[in-house]
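call fold(seq) -> tokens
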Amino acid sequence: MPMKNLCKAFLAYIIIAVSTLGSTGVAPAQAAMGFLVSQSFSGGFLYCYYQIPGYSHYGVLRLPLGSFCPPTHNF
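ret:
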């Protein structure tokens, strides 16, 4: 019986851990607006890089070629 509870707890931990990861690692409850700082083309996609105030990393948005990077994006 304790092993069954341990398995349930581990499964719940994995589900929560995966559900709180976004493309930038920012949890949905901590969503923030990023401001466009650069863009690049690679592998048939347009990559938009956003600075998120209060975070040391950039948010990245991948769009199909022919698209435009919006000046802001919510992460």
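The longest strand covers residues 33-42.
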